[in-house]
Amino acid sequence: xxxxxxxxxxxxxxxxSPLRLQSRALASAISSTALKMxxxxxxxxxxxxxxxxxxxxxxxxxxxxxxxxxxxxxxxSAMSLxxxxxxxxxxxxxxxxxxxxxxxxxNNRYTLAITGAGHAAMEASIMNIVERxxxxxxxxxxxxxxxxxxxxxRQGCDxxxxxxxxxxxxxxxxxxxxxxxxxxxxxxxxxxxxSSGVCQSLxxxxxxxxxxxxxxxxxxxxxxxxxxxxxxxxxxxxxxxxQPQNQGSIILxxxxxxxxxxxxxxxxxxxxxxxxxxxxxxxxxxSWKRHxxxxxxxxxxxxxxxxxxxxxxxxxxxxxxxxxxIPEGFPDWKAVPEYLMKKYKLEIVGGMGPSVxxxxxxxxxxxxxxxxxxxxxxxxxREALESVHPGLPKAQL
Length: 397
Known about the structure:
By secondary structure, this protein is an alpha/beta fold. It is built from twelve helices and 14 strands. The protein starts with a helix and ends in a 9-residue tail after the last helix.
């Protein structure tokens, strides 16, 4: 059978089968006359919605992330594109690496950005540390602990868990007993459980894990830059964090040489570089203090309205994301975020995973973490509560 005849046979099967050409050599051997444009009909029309320029409304993002970046970051993402293998871009990458080492507080040379969401960094952290069949112990007290379990299970790891209800956190002794009982190769801890607003203490966990021949993986997506975090001093093995423009960042122990890996998202790297520069100019300690001062002002405002916080122990609350208990008997928790979005284009959200229906989650982080934003939100939040539930006791307003 000739090459053209074989191709004709393939075409006749395409309507009944997902068969695809597997050989470029076969395709290149086809006579150009067999592929004349006139012989094909356009069956997918031009999408009419793409015939007008993109228009994105401006909104205030006071949820658990993403949050509004500064104009400096927006402008950086619109700078002239560089080739991803050009020396000028390598310089930007080196600056990003230095910035990540600063915010993670580590000298680890394998500190890097991943072009992807926090999930990508979580998967990379687990898959590069725990082999198939090895045991990993996950501290599961919310959505992100559960997600780590799912990723590890799909990887074929032997997954054990220390489970807590939403809002719960772990003591040093509880984790120690878990290591003794399960003898894992790695421990996964969420430093910033944004589904409930818990900030898990990491003090002493690095040395504890190493005493039990175990590596420590830490998720700091919602806390990095907003609360103290010391990778080297706390003896953390792998940390994964997040920066404003959808760049997962991790630190990994490893070996290798400089080589091409993939085509980087150049403009996102620009934005990441500028977000790190903003942190560096302010100084980490000043950033931590600003976030703490802002959030304590927020907590005081909520308590003055008679509202309760989901995490009762102040020492274990995140300074970036706060979970507010939905008052008992509140008719429809979704109505409050909907009111704020419809009237003011302001975003807050409800719970996530196991905390759905229990809380509203509000975030003040990065460029949004200032007292004036808190004062604005408290005024509008009070209005939303009064509008949605006029019968709410005044003590809760």
